[in-house]
Amino acid sequence: MNLLILGGNSDVAYALARLFAERAGAGIVLASRNLELLDKKAKDLEIRYNQSVRAVYFDAADTDTHREFYDSLNPKPDGVVAAFGYLGDQGRAQSDFQEAQQIIQTNFIGAVSILEIVAADFEKRGQGVIVGMGSVAGERGRQNNYIYGAAKGAFNIYLSGLRSRLSKRRVHVMTVLPGFMDTKMTRKMKLPGLLTATPEQAAADIFNAFNNSKEVVYTRWFWRWIMAVIKVIPESIFKRLSL
Ligand SMILES: NC(=O)c1ccc[n+]([C@@H]2O[C@H](COP(=O)([O-])OP(=O)(O)OC[C@H]3O[C@@H](n4cnc5c(N)ncnc54)[C@H](OP(=O)(O)O)[C@@H]3O)[C@@H](O)[C@H]2O)c1
């Protein structure tokens, strides 16, 4: 298979690329903005697993370039993982709309822009798998990250609708809902060890779910139950909690 990983510099995406190259013999295109770093990762994977691995420039926020980007891919992918994400700074976003806009542009608008292009191609071909990395932050608004959470929540809903539309054309859409993961995105945060996945654990969860054609996967699995509880807390109580 040919796998396109958008946001290929993400720590989880790179761990996932390793699994696909090693265990599925996939040819891989890693797409992101830091091409120098991406190139090193692609070469490393190519040598290690003897698969074709290429690095290409892609900016999720620059939606005007998405059509040309996808048209330039040859061969076309049969699997696409949207792994890019921008946590941003909630405090800054409250007073600087540009920061809020960057969060929404990267996590939602950019994702919709590129995935609609992918979806149209897969729909026409009657095959393909799309994996979108949402977040449990999109399941309930928290005071500490509600702008990022709102963008991810919109992305979760988008993926649900896309799954429904494309299921008629034998195209599968999988939503990944990570809880805490120990990656460069969360480097400055103090995360609870027991609830935090390594990039390798998260990648293994995604790879297994992909192979089992799951619709929605939480990583780690216990986040499904944590969120089930968090979602039923009444607003009148939830607003007083410092979650
Ligand atoms: N870490 C967590 O606790 C956590 C929890 C829930 C959900 N998630 C989601 O999981 C996914 C993977 O994140 P991660 O934890 O592996 O974080 P990460 O290592 O920081 O990766 C995020 C990647 O997104 C890329 N990116 C940001 N803006 C981009 C843009 N405009 N265009 C293209 N690429 C862009 C960056 O690539 P460049 O370096 O090339 O700029 C970066 O490598 C993300 O969607 C994230 O929102 C993470």
UniProtKB/TrEMBL annotation:
Tell me the first and last residues of the signal peptide: none
SUPFAM superfamilies found in the cross-reference section: NAD(P)-binding Rossmann-fold domains (SSF51735)
Which Gene3D superfamilies does the record match to this protein?
NAD(P)-binding Rossmann-like Domain
Instruction: List the source organism.
Output: Desulfosarcina alkanivorans
Q: Which InterPro entries match?
A: NAD(P)-bd_dom_sf, SDR_fam
Oxidoreductase found in the keyword field: yes
Query: Would you tell me the Gene Ontology cellular component terms?
Result: membrane
The entry's family comment says: Belongs to the short-chain dehydrogenases/reductases (SDR) family.
Keyword set includes Transcription regulation: no
Q: Which GO terms describe its molecular function?
A: oxidoreductase activity
Record NCBIfam families: PRK07102.1
Keywords (A to Z) from UniProt: Oxidoreductase
Any coiled-coil ranges, and where? none
Name of the protein this chain belongs to: Short-chain dehydrogenase
In terms of superkingdom, the source organism counts as Bacteria
